[in-house]
Amino acid sequence: MGGFRSKVKKIIFQQDIDTDFVNLPNTGHLNSNTQPSNEKTIAEPTFTNTLTELRDCFDLVHRSFNQDEIHIIYLSSLVDSQTLEWEILSPLREMSFKDLEKSFKQSLFKRQSNLEDVINGILDGNVSMFAGENTYLINVSGVEKRSISQSETETVINGPHDSFNEALKTNVSLIRRRVRSSRLKMIELSVGEISKTKVLLVYIEGIAKMEFVNHIQERIQSVKVDSLTDSNILIQIIDDHQLSPFPQFYTTERPDIAVTKLYAGKIIGLVDDSPNIFCTPSSFVDFFESPDDYNQRWIIGTGVRILRYLALFITLILTAFYVSITTYHYEMIPQSLLQSIMQSRSRVPFPPIVEAIFLEIVIELLREAGARLPTKIGQTIGIVGGIVIGQAAVEAGITSNILIIVVAISAIASFIVPSYIMSASIRIVRFLFILVAGFLGNIGIFFAFGILIVHLTGLTNLSSPYFMPISPTFFKDWLDSIVRGPFYKIRKGQPAQSLMQNDSEKERN
């Protein structure tokens, strides 16, 4: 350590940082002592080994001090240059040996003894310092991130308007601001052999059931993929029923919804670089709830929630019912309306099922075009395209004007569902209803509806019934699922799974 007493070597400042980039020679093959296998080898966290692991990186910076006895390595794209200057470069230039020795004992300097931990620390935005035989990591990360803004997919009229972003620490802070309790617990996991993506499982101790926490933790740890880029990919991998069209994990960008789920005894998961959090165990009714239901009078919230379930029925059945009655069941049409339908369809050369599927596909094309184009252009395309195409199709005799009204009502009803993922799943199922109605009529509709109910009741999320509290039935939970009851009637802080156990215990007694 006597070498630290000499003067600090003159270094190149920020304006000359490009000359400090490390460009190791590319030999085209591995070292003779290195085996090209997937097995992890234990290596010392030395300066040379670290440079070898991070070779051929454009943003890799290496600086040396004190006659090459102190080395620092970092990635310029991941560190905050101002923090780097104040916390590391300035002390190394100006402090004496005694001051430097004291700095190494501070909590800012975390000593490491494993090369993999050093590499991961540098990739997280830390600076690696090599002083003699010791290796330290100093956190000076400064990754660019999107500011907290309003969610574009989950808008509310009353209530908070902030949303999660892609920075994991920012998302944790948004939850911490709303849950100021030491009972808020977090489990950090890593997914992806290459990406090493951080996943946080968050729950409230004493409210969430630990068997569910352990279950989701084991399931995530069993995931074997090269990379993970978003939470929506992770939940598809760990789904109980991956062939189902319905989403089984509830996802949201809103911190207020996430905290509400925590207070209800559920577990939420945060994935680094993803603005969406997932919630488990989730049920079918969770996708039809909105924060606006709780931010207004309970009677209004109940009416709006029932309207969503009515919209679900309309978007599934209405177009299929039109195809059914115009193909097989003319006797169900009132006499006054039958004449109008016959006149509307007199010029249409196609059967109702072809006509309906054609219009549904056109509606989906307009929907996707409006979503992918810029906001102002997308709205114009959606409105003008719908009017022009619809009017032209009627005048050309391709479709009837009554079916256009029916398809438009079905499309509007699908937009009432708060969850976009659930809305997309319902639109897919709607095509199946139309096909069955075109071949089997009303009997086919009832048969498809029965199959749908059986499928939903058979789904599970984290081994918890997906269709709860409808099946199995817990009428007390209907006050906060099917309807939005008064707050003094809603039982908060106790998940439905515990209610299931309590009710079963009462039956035994």
Task: Please tag this protein with its features.
disordered C terminus; alpha+beta; 509 residues; 12% strand; 3 domains
Please give a structural write-up.
With 509 residues, the chain is α+β, with helices and mostly antiparallel strands. The protein folds into 3 domains: 2-139, no CATH class; 168-282, no CATH class; 298-465, no CATH class. 44% of the residues lie in helices and 12% in strands. The protein contains 16 helices and 12 strands. The strands form 3 sheets. It has a 5-stranded antiparallel beta sheet, with helices on both faces. A 5-stranded antiparallel beta sheet has the order 6-7-9-10-8, with helices on both faces. A hairpin with a 5-residue loop joins β6 (184-191) and β7 (197-204). α9 (298-327) runs parallel beside α14, α11 packs antiparallel against α12 and α11 (352-372) packs across α13. The termini are far apart.
List the helices and strands and how they pair.
Layout: H1 47-53, E1 60-65, E2 70-75, H2 81-94, H3 97-104, E3 109-112, H4 115-123, E4 126-131, E5 134-139, H5 168-176, E6 184-191, E7 197-204, H6 210-221, H7 231-237, E8 250-252, H8 255-263, E9 267-271, E10 277-280, H9 298-327, H10 335-345, H11 352-372, H12 375-395, H13 401-415, H14 420-440, H15 442-458, E11 460-461, E12 464-465, H16 496-508
Antiparallel strand pairs: 1-2, 2-4, 3-5, 4-5, 6-7, 7-9, 8-10, 9-10, 11-12
